[in-house]
Specification:
It is a single chain. This protein is of the alpha+beta class. The protein has three domains: 1-250 and 386-524; 258-376, no CATH class; 535-670, Jelly Rolls (Sandwich), CATH 2.60.120. Strands 1-2-6-5-4-10-25 form a seven-stranded mixed sheet. Strands 27-30-35-32-33 form a five-stranded antiparallel sheet, with no helix packed on it. It has a four-stranded mixed sheet with strand order 3-9-8-7. β8 (154-160) and β9 (165-167) form a beta hairpin. It is globular. The two termini are 47 Å apart.
């Protein structure tokens, strides 16, 4: 990450990166004992959000990072943001994505400026660099926690292997691993709970269809001979009943930034390559599988954010069980094994003569982007730690929260992504190879995250907040564990720390109404649906106020929709398929009318939309290839009170349209 606007200082074995105008004087930063109002452990996206928030609230803050990478997954290759409902991303997280857009377009950043959720790693790094420099946040790299000193239930200092001690009234654990939380004696868990623990349906052991072998693949070293033993990476333990709990965690991988540019870095054979690791994939291909072997969604600059895709892909299934509690040296060894596995997979796909030439040439047409991760040969410097430790506190987020069947009153942010667990083990079922653990189930709408889930029990620690390894079941964490949500919760955590310092109290005693008021003032979104006074929203997912003709199909494939999904006409039945939104207008008056859709190149650019107002019909034509994920004004109209299609409604028609027509939601705002 380029620190062109910051100073780099050597402090023994550690590196200190500070803004050109640090909030703390340089001698104090280099001292054996460093003090600040807030000490953040982990320079992830959440760690940066917490420290920047504290600075904006007038507090001093610093970040202690055990490694050298700054920005977590957001700068580590995950450029295809797992955003869920983008409209539910507020506060500093929303600002980050607006800053990304501004970097690409050279435009100002305002509270209403556009956001961009796909980006190259170096662009995200530049945005975080700006945020840290503007806020004057020092970052201590290569500074690993060695011990925590507590007085009663309060942390008083962190000791690190650099020889320095960090003291503050408040701390935030922003690591993916929960190391500070564990060192402070806070209760935690890892692995998968049984469904019975929290009354869930998607937790524990799950043999499902996602990223699954759909052809018979023999799992034995000598095909057809169980006595020859299992191929590497396959569990010999019989599959437990569905919903059973265990200590397994979902697979990790590297999110790769690939390109097909002429100057790409070709896939190299890593030291330690062992072809036997990929024998199941060779047999899968011999059984007729032709791919995909990894995905290649574009993020800009001719580059990708390439992720796991398929039954045998970049996820190193079953190789990470020891990671959450491993030492730094042991973790480094696990990370190295993941690198060798994944680079070996790419070499195998591009070179193994057992594979068809078409697969080898298609793989070899890709390579690492030479201008990303330049100090690491184009390879990402951040392993995707999808889950590790999870705190156990007074409120455990569960599947019930994700499904909105329970709603905590102490919301400090929203999550909205699918309940998503990658596979946890590779097993044998009826003599054939199967994957186990993949779950991908959507949530009906954005849902609130309880403040109690990011603070420990008061008896364990009163001055620590945990916005990343928060209190959640395995399957609920699968929905919450997204970079925008981590930034959202980190902003809320730092705000709570600020209020606790002001009151001289523990974080558990922060008045939730006071915290929520401050968060809302700073742009945080705490409840769904988002409403303003005088606003009526009619969503396609509701039965009231929606009438249809023809065939409309529900979808969630393109983000930016309102509510749980949107509908489209399948680019068929033109002139027959229509959908009308009819609101209930509480009082006659002047209303601005908006329409929402999701954009894609396959959308129609000439969608006729009729606004019915008091018996008068005004037709607009909208281009759904752009403008998605936002409310687009159709104009201001005088509407009568009541609910009547002729009095007030929006009708989406499909006559002569030149692509897919989307119907998502309509909004009516009293002027």
């Amino acid at each position: 990450m380029p620190y062109t606007r910051r100073h780099v200082l050597r402090l023994g074995t550690a590196t200190l990166v500070v803004a050109a105008t640090p909030a703390l004087p340089l001698p104090a930063l280099a001292a054996a004992v460093v003090t600040a109002d807030l000490v953040v452990y982990g320079a992830t996206s959440a760690g940066i959000a917490a420290a920047v928030t504290a600075r904006r609230l007038g507090r001093t803050a610093l970040i202690v990072e055990p490694g050298r990478h700054v920005g977590g997954l957001s700068t580590g290759g995950l450029g295809m943001t797992d955003s869920g409902v983008k409209a539910a991303i507020g506060g500093l997280a929303g600002e980050f994505y607006r800053r990304v857009y501004a970097k690409y377009h050279g435009t100002p950043v305002t509270p209403t400026s556009p956001a961009r959720f796909t980006f190259e790693p170096h662009v995200a790094a530049a945005v975080f660099d700006d945020l840290l420099a503007e806020a004057g946040v020092p970052v201590y790299l290569d500074t690993r926690l060695t011990g925590v000193v507590k007085t009663a239930a309060r942390i008083t200092e962190l000791a690190c292997d650099s020889g320095q001690v960090f003291r503050a009234p408040m701390y935030v654990d922003a690591t993916y691993e929960g190391d500070l939380m564990a060192a402070a004696g806070v209760g935690w868990t890892a692995g998968r709970e049984a469904n019975s623990v929290h009354g869930e349906t998607l937790n524990g052991v799950q043999v499902r269809s996602g990223h699954q072998f759909n052809r018979v693949v023999d799992p034995y070293v000598t095909a057809g001979n169980p006595a020859s033993g299992l191929l590497p990476g396959i569990s010999a333990t019989p599959v437990a009943p569905t919903g059973s709990g265990d200590a397994r965690i979902q697979a990790y991988n590297f999110r790769m930034c690939l390109t097909q540019a002429a100057n790409r870095i070709p896939f190299a054979r890593p030291s330690g390559y062992d072809a036997i690791r990929y024998e199941p994939l060779a047999r899968y291909v011999q059984a007729g599988y032709t791919g995909p072997f990894f995905n290649t969604p574009a993020v800009g600059g001719g580059k990708t954010d390439s992720n796991n895709d398929g039954a045998f892909s970049t996820d190193f299934i079953g190789a990470n069980y020891a990671y959450p509690t491993a030492s730094h040296a042991a973790r480094a060894a696990i990370i190295e094994e993941h690198r060798v596995y994944q680079q070996g997979l790419l070499w195998f796909l591009a070179n193994d003569p057992r594979l068809p030439a078409s697969i080898r040439s298609a793989t070899a047409s890709w390579g690492l982007a030479p201008d990303e991760f330049t100090g690491n040969g184009g390879w990402p410097t951040q392993l995707y730690i999808r889950e590790a430790r999870r705190m156990v506190s007074a409120y455990v987020m569960t599947e019930a929260d994700c499904r909105s069947s329970r709603v905590p009153a102490d919301s400090v942010g929203l999550a909205s992504y699918t309940m998503d667990s990658h596979n946890c083990q590779r097993v044998v079922v009826s003599g054939a190879l199967k994957n186990e653990g993949d779950v991908q189930v959507g949530v009906p709408q954005p849902y609130p995250i309880s403040y109690r889930s990011i603070v420990p029990h008061a008896s364990q620690c009163t001055n620590l907040l945990v916005p990343v390894c928060l209190s959640a079941s395995h399957i609920a964490y699968g929905s919450i564990r997204m970079e925008p949500v981590f930034m959202i919760l980190a902003q809320s955590a730092a705000t709570a720390a600020h209020l606790a310092i002001a009151a001289g109290s523990g974080v558990q005693q922060v008045p939730i109404a006071t915290l929520q008021a401050r968060l809302r003032a700073d742009g945080q979104l705490l409840s769904w649906p988002l409403t303003t006074p005088g606003e009526i929203i009619v969503d396609s997912s509701t039965s009231a106020g929606v009438t249809r003709a023809g065939v409309w199909l529900r979808s969630t494939s393109v983000g930016g929709y309102w509510g749980p999904d949107y509908e489209h006409d399948d680019n068929a039945n033109k002139g027959v398929s229509r959908l009308r939104f009819t609101p209930t207008i509480p009082a006659a008056g002047s209303y601005q009318v908006f329409l929402r859709w999701t954009s894609h190149a396959n959308r129609a650019g000439n969608v006729p939309v009729d606004v019915c107002a008091g018996g008068t019909v005004t037709t607009r034509t909208v281009d759904q290839r752009s403008g998605g994920g936002q409310w687009v004004s159709l104009g201001t109209f005088t509407l009568p009170a009541g609910s009547s299609p002729t009095g007030a409604s929006v009708l989406i028609r499909t006559e002569a349209t030149d692509g897919y027509v989307v119907a998502d939601a309509a909004r009516f705002v009293r002027i």
